[in-house]
Each structure stands twice: as structure tokens, then as C-alpha cells.
Design brief:
Elements lengths: L9 E5 L3 E5 L6 E7 L5 E7 L5 E5 L4 E6 L7 E7 L21 E9 L3 E10 L15
Parallel strand pairs: 1-7
Antiparallel strand pairs: 2-5, 3-4, 3-6, 6-7, 8-9
């Protein structure tokens, strides 16, 4: 049997939107979803056959960890936000967030192994690009 992965491994969601977890394999999987910070189970539902799915409304911002109790190597993350100024980096760690209103902001980055890092006092001006470089501790 091939190793089945959660795809995408990391994604973003937004409060008020629906989160859909679908089994696309002909074997039993479970949708065991934890609150990443508190480790509390949010829900744990069997997806017994190909095509079975669950849908839940995202109500709180934060990181959700997704696991399959049947296949311990299957893991993924959904970072839920209550604002639209979010992106996922490319394979080189680069990112762009468009259409941010002018103002002073803090930019925060999260990584499943490295944790969180941030830079504050980022001044965004209308029709201008701001380049920043985030570093995680020890990297």
C-alpha cells in the first residue's frame, strides 16, 4: 500500500467558512482534529470509504492539527484566521500579501516545527511594496 498523505499539508482557513475533509482512498481514515495550542480534540469522525467527507464551520482563529488515527504518519495543519491578510510561503520561503490597507502592522509567521516569529512596526504605504526578512530562532 502506498503512503497516503494529507494534501495540502498546511493550508489556511477563515472563520465563518466551511472546512471539508474528504477521504479519497478506498480504506478507512479518521478525521481527528485537535486545537494545536491546547491539544484538545475538536472532533474525531470516521471516514470509512472513498468519497466520504465531513464539513464543519470554522468558528475560532488558531491552528488546527489534522491526524488520522489509523495511519499515524498522516498529519496536516489548518491555520484559521479572522482577517484576509494571509498567505503561505513558496518552496523558498517567499511570500506576497496583496491589498493591505496603509498602516503599521506586525507580520507573524508560523512553522509546524520552528514555532512562531514576528516583526513589528512594518509601515505599509499605498501602492508601495515592503520587503521584510523573517527569521526563526536558531535559523
Amino acid at each position: 500500500m502506498r503512503n497516503v498523505l494529507l494534501s495540502p499539508h498546511v493550508t489556511v482557513g477563515f472563520t465563518g467558512n466551511d472546512f471539508v475533509l474528504r477521504n479519497e482512498d478506498p480504506v478507512l481514515h479518521t478525521g481527528h482534529i485537535y486545537s494545536y495550542i491546547r491539544g484538545k480534540t475538536m472532533f474525531n469522525i470516521a471516514l470509512p470509504e472513498k468519497g466520504s467527507e465531513i464539513s464543519k464551520t470554522l468558528t475560532k482563529p488558531g491552528v488546527m492539527e489534522l491526524n488520522c488515527d489509523c495511519h499515524p504518519w498522516m498529519k496536516g495543519f489548518v491555520y484559521v484566521f479572522d482577517h484576509p491578510y494571509v498567505t503561505i510561503t513558496d518552496e523558498n520561503g517567499r511570500f506576497v500579501i496583496d491589498d493591505i490597507p496603509p498602516g503599521v502592522y506586525t507580520v507573524e509567521a508560523w512553522h509546524e516545527s520552528l514555532g512562531t516569529t514576528s516583526i513589528s512596526e512594518i509601515n505599509v504605504q499605498s501602492a508601495k511594496t515592503v520587503a521584510i526578512k523573517l527569521k526563526f530562532a536558531g535559523k
